[in-house]
Design goal:
By secondary structure, the chain is α/β, with parallel strands linked by helices. The protein has four helices and eight strands; from the N terminus they run E-E-E-H-E-H-E-H-E-E-E-H.
C-alpha cells in the first residue's frame, strides 16, 4: 500500500493460465478487460468474481493469492472469473463497471442463484461498491478489506450503508495487518470474521490457507 517500502504485488505475481481459460470481459461502460475463467468439474453451484488489489502497486488478477482462491472455489463447485481492472481506477468507483461487467460475464456462463464477490484489499472495496448496486450479489468476502482511508492513496471509504446490504459479508484478515487491522473490521459490518494468526496484509506463503478460509465462508 502507500507507505515507504511497501510491497509491490507484481514482484510475486503468479499465474495458473494452464488450467484457466483466458477471456475478454466487457465492462458496463464498454471497456474491454482481460479475464480468466475457471469452471468446476460439475455443474456450478455458484458464480464468483475475484477482484485484485490496487493496480498502482502492480496488482493484477494473477497476484499470488488470487489464483489459489480460484482453485479452492472451483473445487468447491463455483464458476470463478478473475478480471484485471482498468488502470485508471480512481478511488475505486471507476472500477465498479469492471466488476459489474464481470458479474454479467460469469453469470452468463453459470446462471445460478448464488453470486459472490471476493476481493483482496482494494479489490474488496471495489467489490463492496459494485455489489451494493447489483441485486444478484448474495455474498461478499473481503480479504484484508480497506476499513479506513490511507493518507497517500485516494480511496473511497467503506459505504456508510453497508450494514443494510442484504448480501452476506465475511472478512478474512491477518492479526498483524498494519494497514487495516482486524479490530477495525466492523467498518464493513461483517456477519463473520476469520483472523489469521501470524499473517499481515500480504499473507505471504499462506495462499492455500487463505483460499480454504474463503471457500469455507461461501459454503
Amino acid at each position: 500500500m502507500a507507505v515507504a517500502g511497501a510491497c509491490r504485488y507484481d514482484v510475486l505475481a503468479m499465474s495458473d493460465r494452464s488450467t484457466t481459460r483466458t477471456t475478454t470481459v466487457l465492462a458496463r461502460d464498454g471497456r474491454r478487460l482481460r479475464g480468466r475463467l475457471r469452471l468446476p468439474a460439475t455443474a456450478p453451484r455458484g458464480a464468483a468474481v475475484v477482484c485484485h488489489p490496487h493496480p498502482a502497486f502492480g496488482a493484477t488478477m494473477d497476484v499470488w493469492l488470487l489464483p489459489s482462491v480460484g482453485v479452492a472455489l472451483a473445487a468447491d463447485g463455483w464458476a470463478v472469473l478473475r478480471v484485471d481492472f482498468r488502470a485508471d481506477v480512481g478511488d475505486g468507483h471507476a472500477a465498479v463497471p469492471d466488476v459489474l461487467g464481470a458479474v454479467d460475464a460469469v453469470t452468463a456462463v453459470a446462471p445460478v442463484a448464488r453470486v459472490a464477490l471476493v476481493g483482496w484489499s482494494f479489490g474488496a472495496l471495489v467489490g463492496l461498491l459494485a455489489g451494493m448496486r447489483d441485486a444478484r450479489v448474495t455474498d461478499w468476502v473481503g480479504i484484508a478489506p480497506p476499513t479506513r482511508r490511507l493518507p497517500d492513496l485516494p480511496m473511497a471509504p467503506p459505504p456508510p450503508l453497508v450494514g443494510r446490504w442484504a448480501a452476506r459479508r465475511s472478512v478474512v484478515v491477518g492479526d498483524g495487518d498494519g494497514f487495516f487491522p482486524a479490530c477495525d473490521a466492523g467498518a464493513v459490518a461483517p456477519h463473520a470474521v476469520t483472523v489469521v494468526p501470524g499473517a499481515d496484509h500480504f499473507f505471504f506463503d499462506r495462499d492455500d490457507e487463505v483460499a480454504d478460509i474463503v471457500a469455507a465462508h461461501l459454503r
